[in-house]
Amino acid sequence: MPRRRSSSLLALLLSLSACAALSACTGQPASGPAPDAGSSAAAPAASATSAAAPAASAGAAERLDALLAAEQRRAAVEVSPADQQSRDVRVRRAAARALARIGGDAARPGLARALADEDDEVVAWAAYGLGFSCKEREAETVSALVARALARDAGPSPAGTSSGAPAAVSSGAPAAASSGAPAVASSGAPAAASSGGAPAGATPLDAGGAIARAIGRCGAETSEPTLVAWLDGPRERAIHAAYALGDLAAIKLKLREETLVALLNLASGSAASPPVPEALYPIGRLEHVPLTVIPRIRDVATARLAEASDARLFAVRALGRAGEAAASELARVLSAKGVFTAGERAEAARALKRLGPPGQRALADAVAALAPSADPIALTGLVSEDFGVLVTALDALTSAGAARKALRDLAALPPPPSAPAAILRRVAWLRCGAARLLVGGDYRDPLLLGCDVTAPAEPGSKPDAGAPVRGSIGARAVVEVIGRDAIAGARLAAFRAYAASGDLRAREAAIELIASHEEIAGAPDLLAKALAAEEPGLVATAAEVIARQPQRASEAPAQAKRRRRKRSDEKDALAAVTPPAIEGALLSILDRPGARDDPELIGAVVDAVGALSLKPAEARLEQLCRSSYPTTRARAGTALGVLRGRKIACDAGLPGDAGAAGRPAVAPPAGELPAEASALAREPAVLIFDTDAGELTMTLDPSLAPVAVTRFLDLARSGYYDGKIVHRVVPGFVTQFGAPFGDGAGGPPGKPALRCETSPVAFGPLRVGVALAGRDTGSSQLFVMHARAPHLDGQYAAVGLASGPWVALADGDVIRSVKVRD
After folding, report:
1. Which of 35, 65, 349, 532 has its CA 20 to 30 A from that of 696?
2. Which pTM does this prediction carry?
3. Per-residue model confidence (pLDDT) at position 10
């Protein structure tokens, strides 16, 4: 269907309405606790030729540096009106990018003005930022976004894009993902950071896609019908709308039946238009679908399995919502090596887990068919992408059932003589995965205790249920089995052994069990010991348990009476029974110098302090209200609210009653400029990894995330990644590494958490991103995608592209060394 064309007057009116809907074109500051960034005037329309601006002048280069500093410091007030009015498109783009990443009320008016810019990239950043800054203003934001989309349709081709051609990053995987080549600029040269760290010639962002996704993320009442209407538009817009409906489904947890019908119609195609498999993506985001559409989902998704593409994964996932009758089709996908990718086959295993008894029978048959023989030569083939498929099938089984014989063979799989560590590790994963299913709740079964061949017991010794097993894979398996029954008596003694010492990841798993097992005796002592540990992941795990179940950190009443006199007030009573060791440990962490630069750790501790109503922490929480990290301020305000018995907000850096009149209009505190900003990487660089799965590479490109890329290159050159383990592998989804203790938490000492440099960029196969545990929590961890994952788009910083069989890595594999090739 061709685009509707209207007069230039209509385009102007619609463009202006985009600002008017947000009260942002009047030149007046927006109401709220913080001043408006660039509030003195609306940005004039840019010339259509501004996208081809000449090299930045000295003045423009200074502004690019200043805007990068404002972005990193989260200081919206440092984005000036002149920046949004600049004739240099690079300055306007950098201003819009800074505001999009800063977000919040202070950035919102400037984003609304940027939405009216003629440059497509400025519009993309504006829409992207508004999609994350529309809380409590959903309707007006969506109205403005829709108006801007209509104005783009009515006007000439947006600056910076070719007529009718979508940007390369608009949908699906990056164009270069399959080859692992770095992203390139439109001229064909590698995209490099400009003198100010802003993108210089990077692949243009897609404004249409950013607008659609923002409409979905805002979740207004008009979002769903608007996006459904867009499903009937040009193919690229329909794909954007489908992804946006997936965002909406994740927020609302449902879609209207007529919406599902429209998606299925698009996915099935017609005589006039080919099928759009991306339309099945929103269905896979729903936990439940109406019974009336299940047969159609099954038919359409099955038909799309015949067409290989990155979007075929969505058809596999949709079949997991298509009822038990879909089990046979999913079983075919799982077993068809060479026809379907390893990621699709792993997704089929996860989908079968949803389908009850038929799914379990199919998984049992698949495990028997996929299990390797005991032949040492055959076992050398475990270092491949197919290993992840078998491990996923094992994880999807809920009981031994019909797979018992195959599981017994796997649990007894002999390690090849003199096998390398990578083979032993995979044998251990198979043995322990099978043993977990066979032993039920018997944590003392020798089959379980001896499953980990990476760290075998001393020769001649027998497995001892009273002492932790030595290997991480086996120890985690034992902890899982311990948690299947009431933890008391001998089981409690075994639990304590794993919770108090031994493998870090098994210890964290044991501490997590405290939240769901109220019968565990002595839990406060174990939590206190974990809070005193040096590993931030263990500390955060204990704090999260306390935040969710504060009573687990309390002493028994009899113990409390011996320590303090019982008080009548309920809050005082709760505080009175908090053991001094736990209180002291939590307060000590709040005082720890480096902890405040780790929002993940400090946030967990603040939540625990609030849950326990620790009054001695009040002054410390007030200090955290002045943190430059937004998530830290928000959590400190919540904890203060618990202590004071009323809602407290810290968004302006000052603790005050939320929504109180006369609140000082102060901008949120600005952070310090990161050390990396003084010596930014300017060109893409290649990292060469020597790993247990062979040589792998990735190209890091600073064009969209200059500070993060500089951090990762500095760490690689310093040898930080040498010897680190791959701590997370989800077959068909992601491989992740870079945690200092190998548990997915924390970063290098002395390196504050990175500010998020997220972008409206698609996450497809081999895209490299920065791992996060919340906003502004990245540090040293990277992940590599196995498949297209639209739910990650815009949520994580995209820093490059990888090449090689990253999908062949397994949890626990070692990165022996990393070299940098500039």
Report:
1. 349
2. 0.87
3. 32
